[in-house]
Records
---
Amino acid sequence: MTMAEQNEVVMKDVVRDYKMGEVTVHALRGISLEIKRGEFVAILGQSGSGKTTLLNMIAGLDVPSNGTVEVSGEMLSELTRNQRTRFRRKSVGIVFQSFNLFSTLTALENVEIGISFALDKNELQERALRYLDLVGIADKAASFPSQLSGGEQQRVALARGLAKEPPLLVLDEPTGNLDAETSEEIWDLILRMNKETGATVVAVTHQTSVSKIAHKAVFLRSGQIWGVTEDFVEG
Ligand SMILES: Nc1ncnc2c1ncn2[C@@H]1O[C@H](COP(=O)(O)OP(=O)(O)OP(=O)(O)O)[C@@H](O)[C@H]1O
Ligand SMILES: [Mg+2]
């Protein structure tokens, strides 16, 4: 088996229940999914269908109530919380639906914090600035999140996820707050990272246009895979 054919993500019969007192919410109801290394996968589905819950599993932020999740050869569903945190820091670039920026840090510092600490201060800053520039907000490097618009905060969050240059990028509606034109530029950037660095990309989006640039689109419905469309892209 060549590297390109290896699976980055293997989910088997994944169930995630949330117990809320008397009520149990079945967020995922038996998901089995394989994502190859270097693949660009779009996750689509209505609000509440389980998209974020699924991403959280792949990013190692959450574990299944039942079933297994293997990512980059690590059986995440069997790791301790600390082991998963270490895995995440090393291997996953995450862009949250809710940005999760640190309010006391500037845009630049928010991006720096996502990058490996193996770099020295200058390299760190150079790389963080480069990614802020790529998402079009280098001029806001010194601003705090409270001084930024929703779309600008989203781009800082995106720069943080990308600047890590991780083998796996997990994105939850990364352009949800952006206008059509900026959104298209951002998807182009994500696609370029996928092609140039070989990063595996798993991205939740409401934009069906994105499923056209992805290798594969997974449609969720009520916590189940309703359909998978492969090979939109030739070659
Ligand atoms: N922490 C939680 N506690 C209880 N229920 C939850 C929790 N997180 C998610 N859920 C429920 O699980 C289901 C799936 O939620 P999820 O956030 O994965 O949906 P989604 O597809 O990402 O929706 P959206 O497009 O609105 O972001 C929903 O019914 C939601 O209410
Ligand atoms: Mg969500």
---
Amino acid sequence: MSAPESEKARRFYNSNTSLFLNFGHSSGGSIHRAVWAENINNREAALHYVDEQLCRHLRTMGKEQNGQIIDLGCGVGASLCYIANNLPVTGLGITISDKQVQLATSLINQHNLQKRIACIQGDYCDLPEDLPRADLIFAIESFVHGENPARFFEQAAKLMKPGARLLICDDFINDTGLVNQAQSGSWIERFKQGWLIGSLLTADETDELATQHELRLIEDLDLSPWLELGRPRDKLIALLMKLLGKSALNFQYLRMLYGGNALQYCLQEGWLAYRLLVWEKPYE
Ligand SMILES: C[S@@+](CC[C@H](N)C(=O)[O-])C[C@H]1O[C@@H](n2cnc3c(N)ncnc32)[C@H](O)[C@@H]1O
């Protein structure tokens, strides 16, 4: 029997997080893509685009002073630190990787945020009962790793205070039928294998799961046009992956490049989209 997706993700991030931080395009520890939206004119701002959207939601909710935030799949806590450096909120990060907990704890200490921000190891599909309720919960490029998205929503919805918001920024398939077509299906499969994707849903399917917990979709942005696709480094990786083929899957870091290369292709072809979805829990 193969290991559950959460265990595969734990091993993957334990082995690769330092590599991501040293060789990736990270800024201050972010392990997500840069979004070059309108008016964004430097890499730092592009990497914090989604973090800024989170700050915007806290402000519109009137929770910028004392809001409680939870990051499900927090990496090394970079988004939490960014938000807490800009707004006096308190936050908790949850990651499946014990190595990331160590790195997050030192990042939090480095920013002197240990009184307001903490990071613990845990599975977002099986959270401890005693967690604080939150005003804003988010998952940036972590939702797709889970093999049980229904369970993700169940856990997230339980943690949301009345009026709270849930933001997911991730890759979504544009049409479920694409997995059954020869060309799109094979590229999507490469993406899933390389990036340890546990579930790939359409935005509508995701919203149906949210609706089961009475969450109401209030924002749906397609960020795909603002991603960097086909840069010289991406073309070089595409060439390398053509040479290596499936054998890249035998090496942790190359596996990530294999998945990333397939993802670029799927985004360029319009089979997948990088979207930001936000739901609100009604007041009782
Ligand atoms: C691509 S990284 C994104 C990290 C962070 N959100 C960021 O933007 O920097 C994916 C994250 O999802 C986490 N993750 C994957 N499966 C998880 C699970 N079942 N429970 C908790 N975290 C999980 C990984 O540990 C990792 O931190």
